[in-house]
Each structure stands twice: as structure tokens, then as C-alpha cells.
Design brief:
Aspartate Aminotransferase, domain 2; single chain; binds pyridoxal-5'-phosphate
Length: 476
Amino acid sequence: MKNLKPDAEEMRRIGYLAVDKIVDHIEHLSSRPATESASREEVQNALPGKFSDKGQSFDELFNVLNENVFSKILHLDHPRFFGFIPGPGNYISAVADFLASGHNIFSGVTFEAAGAAQIEINTINWLCGEIGYDIKPSGGIFLSGGSIANLTGLAAARKSKLSGEFEKGTVYFSDQTHSSVERGLRVLGFKKEQIRKITTTEDFKIDIPDLTASIESDKKQGLSPFCVVGNAGTTNTGAIDPLAEISTICKKHDLWFHVDGAYGGSSIISKTGTKLLKGSELSDSFVMDPHKWMFQPYEIACLLVRSSDTLRETFQIIPEYLEDNYTDEGEINFCDYGIQLSRSFRALKLWLSLQYFGLDAFRSAVEEGFHKAQQTENCVKQFKDLQIITPAQMSTVVFRYYESGLSEDQLTYINKSIVSEIVSDGFAVISSTRLRKQTVLRMCVLNPRTTLSDVQKTVEMISQAGKRLRKDIPAH
Ligand SMILES: Cc1ncc(COP(=O)(O)O)c(C=O)c1O
């Protein structure tokens, strides 16, 4: 029987195997396919379903994983992964995750890991500064992802602004808002009838007159509007809501202003992002996902708040069995800022990579995303059978294969099939979405490894696939 304690030599050997594997993966990303996906049936037999009593050799397990797990995936860090929102990651942060879990650091309270808390505080302070919040009293917390960060922000909004009857509370956001906002509200106990999905303008930004009218009408009916959610880059098109105007409305009606910048928020560190996201500094809470456009491995999102007291008031409970942790009055304990007590030291990866590469490297990698999206738009425009639906916004371009005379159903068939063809070919990954009943294609181009040639070849493949699929459609 093994005893859960491999000797030092075995630990090193295993660690080096892992490092070599990751370095090989990163080094050869561009020359390998973007996807070699397998169905679950295909991998089911290769992966042991039962656990052995005596254990197995690491090398055998490692081979099984290499063959059936690490290679058989859609590589979100691949330079030609343009679907959904890519996750480029970076090596230094992967090492940070290993170091954090190797020391099994508990990041729930400062007393148990003061250095880890200081690193989280410093990194959060930097992000608050980038948003434009005053360093005091702002604050925040690193969380697992944008979905949890939105939920956490909405919980603070409810606590701060909904003092009356819960059932009367109403919340407002555009019809382009990410589903995690609605899900967060559902988890918090809100019913569909309390949620107002506001229409969007031509360019998919929240319609301000509709927002104002909806709030005023609810107030007249004796309801209690308490929060508006603005978008700092929608998932569909990268659209940015008019943040300053939303803030004015929130101030007038004393509502909480939450911004979902899970996708686009990180771009605020670049010159272009700072300009585009003007008004973020007026929000009460702001979500961003460093595991997207700040090049971190999963999972790291953050919720930033104008006043950290709002988080403490929402979440802090000090039971008797944790009193030993509360040695200093006023100390920041991250378990008081969200629902997690046991927390991994996820701040380390962002801090270490920022320190190692320097801010300029991050700023210019984000700036490149804006630039490459523009190049993608230009590239799409060169193909007569591709129609731009929304131009480059943030790092996203939306377009579709189009031919006049084809019905929406036929166009949907062609565009959906283009996505399947491209993904199963493995050269690149793109994804589709629906905008005002049209099925459209999205390319999200934010990976610093992506070259112009990656973009050009992918767009060319899309056009060729469209032409081929068009032939399946009977002549009219
Ligand atoms: C705008 C937006 N909000 C929220 C989320 C949810 O973030 P996560 O997947 O990190 O939970 C996403 C994910 O893509 C997003 O694009």
C-alpha cells in the first residue's frame, strides 16, 4: 500500500514530467491543431472508471491523461481559438497556481497567511485604481469566475439598496446582458417578474429612454427599483453600454450601478480600453475576468466595489470557532467579502505574472487585441459572401455568410454548418450566436499568439465552407 507521501526524488521526477509537458504544449501550440476533440463515448473506455485499491504508476496515468484528456480538447489558449471568449493563459501564472497549491495556502483570513492577503490587497488596489475608484474606501475580492462575481456584486446591491419588501425589488439590464446576471438574481431569490430586460439600440447598447421609462413606470406602481447592470463589452458583440448615462440615472433614483466587465473590463488597463470604458469609475461595483483578457489560467475573476464596507456588511459573520482568526480590529479578511471561507490563493497568479512581465507587456497585449479585431474586420470585408453584422468592438467581430435570396432558415443552416465544419477540421475554432433572429458568426481575437495569417486563413476557410455548403441548398 502507498502512503500518500512520495519520496523527494519521486516528487521531483513527477514535477519535472509535468513541467516538460506544459512547456511542450505551449511551445508547439501554433503548429498543432486548435482542437482534437473527442466524444465522451470515445474516451470512456480509455479512462479508468474505477479506482484501484493499491494505486498505479504515475507514468501510466500520465500517458492515459496525455492521450485522452490533455490532447482531446478544444484548446482555448490556441492562437486560432476565436470562439466564445478565448483563454490564452500564460506560463508564469500556471507556475504560480502550482506554487499556491503546493503550499496549500488558505486565503480566507489574513491571520493564516498575511503575505497572501497583502498580495491580494495590493493587486485589488491596483485594479481599483485602473477602474478609477478612490483607493480608499474601494476594495474587492478575487473569485472563481465572472458568474460568481456578478452574483456577489448583486448580493451587495440588494443589501445596500433594497431595504423594503424583497418582492417589490426590480433590477434592470439590457437584452444583451450575459445569462450569469439573470442566473445570479435567480439564485438570490428574485423572480422573473422582478427582472426588466431593456431593449437595445441598433448597435446593441442599452436603450436609455427605455431604461428611464421602465424605472419610472415601476416606481409609479409602488415597486422598488434597486439596481441597473451595465455592460463593459457584451459577449455577443463586445458592445459597451453608455456607462456615464446609466450612472446619472442610478444617482437620480438612488440605485446601485453594477458593471459586468467580465469580458471587456480587463481592457481598461490599455489606452484604448481606458477611453472606451469611461464612466466605469462611476459604478458601485465592477466585475472583470483576468482569466479572459488578462491572460490568466482559469479560475480568476474579481469583483471591485467603490466601498469595501458594502461587501463586509453583506457577507461578514464571525462564529465563535473562527474568533482566533480575528486578532486585529479592522483587518481585511477575504472570507468577509464573499461566500467562500476556504479559498485558494488565486491572487498569486495575477500578481506574479504582472510583476514578472511588467505592466507594459500586459497593456500592449490588450492593445493588440483591439488592433487584431480591426484587422479581422478588414479581412472579412474582402470576401463578398461574408457580411459584417457588427464591426470590431472590443476584440470581437460579428459577421455571417450571406447571399441575397436565401431565407433566414437557409442562412442559419449554412452558418451553423460552417461552425461545425471549422471546428471538426481542427484548424481553428469559431462560434455562432443569434442577433435579432439572425444566426451569425463570432470571432473573438484576443490571444497575443494570434498572427494576421491565422486570422486570414480562418476567414478564408469560412468563406470556402460557406460556398461549399451553399451547394446543398436547392436552387430557387
Ligand atoms: C460578459 C460576460 N459576463 C459574465 C461571464 C461569465 O463569466 P465566467 O464564465 O467567468 O463565469 C462571461 C463569460 O464569458 C461574459 O462574457
